[in-house]
Design a protein that fits this description.
Blueprint lengths: L2 H14 L6 E5 L2 E5 L5 H7 L6 E5 L2 E6 L9 E8 L4 E11 L6 E9 L7 E7 L19 E5 L12 E5 L6 E6 L6 E6 L1 H8 L13 E10 L5 E12 L2 E4 L4 E2 L2 E3 L7 E3 L5 E6 L10 E8 L17 E4 L8 E7 H6 L9 E8 L4 E7 L1 E3 L1
Parallel strand pairs: 16-24, 18-25
Antiparallel strand pairs: 1-2, 1-3, 3-6, 4-5, 5-14, 6-13, 7-10, 7-14, 8-9, 8-13, 9-11, 11-12, 14-15, 17-19, 19-22, 20-23, 21-22, 23-24
């Protein structure tokens, strides 16, 4: 085995084998400790796709902070003491075909390090198309799924002390790693994202990832190898395909797809509208929601006919008779189908929006695709 292949395998192993102490998932509104030896893969399996999780392994920390930010008040502070045994990062659950990703940008500020690199990007890919990302940590194998990973863009001496916006998808040259088909080795490709995607389908069947396979998680992390020692990095404003995945601490709200019905059946051939409601409560006044920011799986509200109309379709009312005003929204089902938010494997939809003070909110409800 060549030296470069051994190093690539070690990088992959470092990402998926937990080696020290306990692992903690930190959600914006709560924190809980998970069993010893867990890593971000278990975080993905254990948590609903609607939740962003901050994770840490070993002598590391991952936390929301007001120390500094590029936008708004908050950023996420990551720190690792000894990156060989420790990791810290952000897990952002998503659901997007890998070849449909055209933007993956974030801002990072590297405050300090003894030995350092900038943020590593890892994509958890559902390559067996069973609707989940699976891995057997006891054997270090991914079952039939895969990860796509890349090192930071700035090598072993990243710049310190200033906010930098990077986009791994739009960069000219990135070194990407992916498992081979038998999960016995890793393969690497250097180039831009479109070249990498083309290479996936022309690598004579040797890689485990193909066009159309869905990315179920984006992980931004430091640590996992000796390239990180006493490093502190701040992360802010993570965006994929124009959709803000991380900005400020997230408030989870209750939503109801097809209010008043269950199960929430949707036909992919339906040419009509899909109603969804954000449910008001004692802690949420729905009139404070900035309507223009509302997205269902990244898709904007429908507008009134004719198509040239700019009037968004929504209304206010107490639809569940609990005494609190609710916000009823309408989305064109075919817009959701074209965006692949709705597809045969869809089991839930996530709605995001900002309040007028820029605080982000998010809610998720189940759906059932019918034929």
């Amino acid at each position: 085995m060549k030296k470069g292949q051994r190093e690539a395998i070690l990088r992959l192993a470092a990402l998926v084998v937990s080696v020290l102490l306990s692992f903690t998932i930190v959600s914006p509104n709560s924190a809980r400790t998970v069993a010893q030896g867990m890593d971000w893969v278990e975080a993905l399996q254990a948590q609903p796709y609607s939740k962003i999780n901050l994770f840490r392994v070993g002598l590391a920390s991952s936390e929301w902070t007001t120390d500094t930010s590029q936008l708004g008040r908050y950023s996420v502070r990551l720190h690792v003491k000894n990156g060989t045994y420790s990791k810290a990062g952000i897990l952002v659950p998503v659901d997007m075909a890998i070849d449909k990703i055209v933007e993956l940008k974030f801002s990072e500020l590297i405050k300090s390090y003894t030995i350092g690199r900038d943020l590593r990007v890892v994509l958890g890919v559902d390559s067996d198309e069973d609707g989940a990302f699976d891995m057997d940590l006891s054997s270090g194998k991914f079952g039939k799924d895969a990860i796509v990973s890349s090192d930071g863009l700035f090598g072993s001496k990243p710049p310190k002390g200033e906010w930098i916006e990077v986009d791994h998808v739009r960069s000219r040259s990135v070194l990407w790693y992916v498992q081979n088909a038998t999960d016995t080795n890793s393969m690497s490709f250097r180039g831009n994202w479109s070249e990498f995607i083309s290479w996936l389908d022309t690598s004579t069947g040797e890689t485990r990832v193909r066009k159309g396979h869905r990315v179920r998680a984006i992980v931004l992390m430091i640590g996992g190898s000796s390239d990180y020692q006493e490093e502190t990095v701040y992360v802010d404003f993570v965006v994929m395909n124009g959709l803000v995945l991380l900005d400020e601490p997230l408030r989870i709200v209750n939503i109801d797809i097809r209010p008043g019905t269950y199960p929430n059946d949707i036909s992919l051939k339906d040419e009509g509208l899909l109603p969804a409601a954000i449910l008001g409560s004692s802690s949420l006044n729905v009139t404070t929601i900035e309507i223009a920011t509302i997205r269902l799986g990244g898709t904007a509200l429908a507008t009134q006919e004719p198509a040239s109309s700019q009037k968004l379709l929504y209304s206010y009312g107490d639809i569940n008779s609990d005494g609190y005003m609710d916000l009823v929204l309408f989305f064109r089902i075919q817009d959701l189908v074209r965006a692949e938010t709705l597809n045969p494997a869809t089991t839930q939809l996530t709605l995001t929006a900002n309040l007028k003070d820029r605080e982000p909110i998010q809610g998720t409800d189940s759906v059932r695709i019918i034929t």
